[in-house]
Amino acid sequence: MNSSKYIVRKPIKDLKNKTIGYEIQYHGENQAYSSEDTSSSNEFAAADTIYSFLTQNTDKVLKGSLNFMTFTTTLLMKQTPRLFNCSDLVIQVDDSVIIHPLAMRFVERFSRDGYKIAVNEFQFSPRYFAIMDHFDYIKINFQTTLDSSLRNIIEVAHSMNKQCIATGIDSEALHKRAVEMEVDYLEGRYVAEHLCTTVHSNSYLQSNFFRLMVAINEDEPDVEAIENIISMDAMLTYSLLKIVNSGYFALRNQATTVHQAIVVMGLGQLRQWIYLLGTNTEDGKDDGGQEEFLKTSFMRASFCAELMKLAKGMPISRNDAYLMGMFSTLNYLIDAPLDEILAGLPIPQEVKDALLHHTGRCGTLYDLVLCYERADWASIGALAEELEIPVNLLTNTYFKCLEEVNSIWRQLMGAANAVSAAQ
After folding, report:
1. For residue 204, pLDDT beyond 50
2. CATH superfamily membership of 6-193
């Protein structure tokens, strides 16, 4: 019997597709960590797992973002929310807490101490409305709640200055319904995967950008080849020199050549900056989904590459796996079908088949990354087993990658802010 435990983040977005926080979801002992699992032994086992995980990871990857996390009575009594700053956490509770004779006292205490409170799957019933004052967020499952109740709940919540989060948004139809009903935020598979399309007309995106991405990800990058690719493109040359000569790098003397710029930046940072350069819109405006788009690209790339260390019998290199994850979002970067985009790229056919058709062992690896991203608990174990990846290593690997992506993002934004300040 599979007793593996998984923990994953799922984005919560506003109506402009901007991520405002993440729900931390747990799955273990063949049960989702939710009100469905109310046995005392299972609750304590889950509580111990969550508590142990948070103790190890709150300082690493969960700080600096708003985290929505469900707490059972056991976790509330353990004072587990205090592992977080109140600015980083929204305490979610469900029916098992609401009906508990003591649990709501803990909720009230945390609320007084400055923590925000959300209620999962709000129900149109007296016991929920009686304690409405204690909630900051009302989460409503759009898959299980009748339309008539949805409208009533949203109207009442807004009249009391509560923010509504539509959950279970797994299709375009549900997304449209939630927007029409004027919810504040959205969560679900469709929301997580729906990235704003950014159409670019810059010529280097059709040629040099991709050549550069492949060149920088070689096992032993050819610095001279990278320098030649950049030097042949005025836009890339201008962007690179502008970045390197910004206050972020604090050079005593300005870099005046591409070679000097590469030496200053180093190949590690250059790889991350190449992708950021390729996703800058011409007018400099962020459409609200750009940050999540970039983070998704980096996360998939890093997760694919790390899983390659664990998978058996893979026909591609770790760098190829990194590109597979990075290029999985290209159809959002360029307004063209993914098969047309991939056709001219010098990457292994196995990677192209994985991205287009989900076939072969590369397709299995790619599907594992997507299933973990979606919290598709039913598929994760089977895919990991097929690749001979120990399932007990998945969560630590996932959060190792998340920590790396957060670090990359801080570097990117630090340099971008320095460039903006210098202009």
Report:
1. no
2. EAL domain (3.20.20.450)
